[in-house]
Design goal:
Strand 1 and strand 2 form a beta hairpin. The protein has a two-stranded antiparallel sheet with strand order 1-2. The protein contains ten helices and two strands; from the N terminus they run E-E-H-H-H-H-H-H-H-H-H-H. It is mainly α. Helix 1 crosses helix 2, helix 2 packs across helix 3 and helix 6 runs parallel beside helix 9.
Length: 220
């Protein structure tokens, strides 16, 4: 989104968007909001672009003016929702890149708690993405890219802790990071229907217990 009109390209640095560009950005956000509402209510495959256009009060062709495919609508929703709400991955990068000297229990607990909080906060889009990724290659690629980015950052942090002597030298870094992330996703999928007080209590307990169990195998 970032102040881009699909016909005129990115705005030059320092220039304010024109009325036409502001209108285009507002229209795109309207389309994304409507699409997410329908995807969440009736599923990605069961929702047509004609339905989205009708709900949004626009011509169907306008959707394809901004988004070449229905799948690109979903990936744009991902980018818009997570970018606009300070996605955890934007917090995860500085947390892990600057955490090489911090002990694993402290950092892993922050990662686990933060990741679970983000999954809960953006539950609607996470569930739509997760279910659609099972059948749609374009959406699957976007989903896998999101998971891969977090896993790679965590792998880099674990490598620093191996080098510092806190974790064992034969630790399979990528596998260990993948298992850590996967456990968080499994917990979210299994417990996402919990009411907020129960979710908070159980997610914090899971983060604490996950880190404890993980470190039992990861330490020297």
């Amino acid at each position: 989104m970032r102040g881009v009109d699909s016909r005129s390209g990115p705005l030059p640095t320092g220039r304010r968007p024109t009325a036409r560009q502001r209108q285009a950005a507002a229209r795109q956000k309207q389309i994304l909001k409507t699409a997410l509402k329908l995807f969440a209510a009736q599923g990605f495959d069961a929702t047509s672009t004609r339905q989205i256009a009708k709900e949004a009060g626009i011509a169907e062709g306008l959707i394809f003016h901004y988004f070449p495919t229905k799948a690109s609508l979903l990936t744009a929703i991902l980018e818009d929702r997570l970018e606009g709400r300070r996605a955890f991955r934007t917090q995860l990068r500085p947390l892990l890149e600057d955490a090489g000297g911090k002990p694993a229990p402290e950092v892993l607990r922050a990662v686990a708690s933060g990741w679970l909080a983000t999954l809960r906060r953006d539950e609607e889009i996470v569930i739509v993405l997760f279910t659609t990724a099972q059948t749609n290659p374009e959406v699957r690629q976007a989903w896998q890219g999101l998971i891969r980015e977090g896993t790679e950052l965590l792998t880099g942090y674990l490598a620093a802790r191996v080098e510092a002597g806190e974790l064992r030298k034969d630790l399979p870094l990528e596998t260990a990071a993948t298992m850590f992330v996967s456990s968080l996703m499994i917990f979210f999928l299994a417990r996402r229907d919990l009411p907020d007080p129960d979710w908070h209590e159980q997610s914090e307990a899971h983060a604490r217990e996950l880190v404890s169990a993980w470190l039992d195998g990861g330490r020297r």
